[in-house]
Amino acid sequence: MVLSKSSEIQTEARNAEAGNQVASVPALRRTVLILDLIANVDAPMSAAEITRSLKLPKSTVHGLLTVMMELALIVRNSDGTYRIGPHTMRWANGFLSKMDIVSIFNEYFAQDTAFRHYTMTLTVLDHRDVVYIGCRNSDQPLGQTFRIGMRLPAPFTATGKILLSEMSEARLRHLFDSEFPAAMTSRSAKNLEQLMVELAATRERGFSIDDGQVSEGMICIGSAVRDHTGQIIAGIATSLMRTEASIEVVSDMGKTIGIAANNLSQQLGGK
């Protein structure tokens, strides 16, 4: 079949467009890498530091940073370093606004008097970390302030332990065999074997405990929130000072947080 000149031109245009789309993919991937890096470092980074960290061409990084600033994805500080910009909050707010679990969490703990004096957190699992999507800080000096969007290594947190507790050994090894997070305190689990012992204890007692693994003077107690299929979709936890945490208090808190988690699960269609 012989194509007309017009058809040939149209075909060439489609092929060129497809080629341009494929060519744009590396730029998108690099943009996300830069955003992830800037969002997760403790201190703002310069263009040179970003280039070295990601091992990308200098010209590529500078070009992407320029476009990202134009779109308000990042902001350039007066010292030449970069931080996350306001545009990303539109995505975060859009994501959170569509998650019924966040509004249910906020409404529930606004009314539940059992936890009115305690810090409450809601997290989801993201690879090896937990991401905080809901929190209510108490006025207790816990040594740790939680905030929405915060990330912590899952093996050290109460919500992380409960979210990891139903994973198979094979999946846990896939996550942590090659890289286990650096300890946050002297009490943090040092390796996967120690974590697996803690996860077994979590399954046996029915709730999880972070005994000073995130902050030396703080204990967190967690439980699982499930969807209508029975799958764990999030973890909730309450935090208190270690000086308050007698065996009896921890046991009672474990039962109470379990009841709260079940109530949240029911509102999400769980049994």
Descriptive overview:
The protein has 271 residues and is α+β, with helices and mostly antiparallel strands. The protein has two domains: 5-89, Winged helix-like DNA-binding domain superfamily/Winged helix DNA-binding domain (Arc Repressor Mutant, subunit A), CATH 1.10.10.10; 99-267, GAF domain (Beta-Lactamase), CATH 3.30.450. Helix content is 48%, strand content 19%. The protein is built from nine helices and nine strands. It has a six-stranded antiparallel beta sheet with strand order 6-5-4-9-8-7. A three-stranded antiparallel beta sheet has the order 1-3-2. β4 and β5 form a beta hairpin. α1 packs across α3 (58-70) and α2 crosses α3 (58-70). The longest helix is centred in the first third of the chain and has 36 residues, at 5-40. Mean pLDDT is 85; it is low at 1-23.
| CATH overall fold name of the largest domain | Beta-Lactamase
Helical fraction equals 40-55%
Q: What is the count of β-strands? A: 9
Terminal CA distance: 62 Å
What is the arithmetic mean of pLDDT? 85
Q: List low-confidence stretches.
A: 1-23
Order of secondary-structure elements: HEHHEEHHEEEHHHEEEH
Name the beta content range: 15-25%
Can you say what the CATH homologous superfamily of the largest domain is?
GAF domain
Overall body shape: globular
Broad structural category: alpha+beta
The biggest beta sheet reads: 6 strands, antiparallel
CATH architectural arrangement of the largest domain: 2-Layer Sandwich
State the name of the first-level CATH class of the largest domain. Alpha Beta
Per DSSP, the total helix count is 9
Strand line-up across the major sheet: 6-5-4-9-8-7
- Integer count of domains: 2
| Rg, Cα atoms, Å | 23 Å
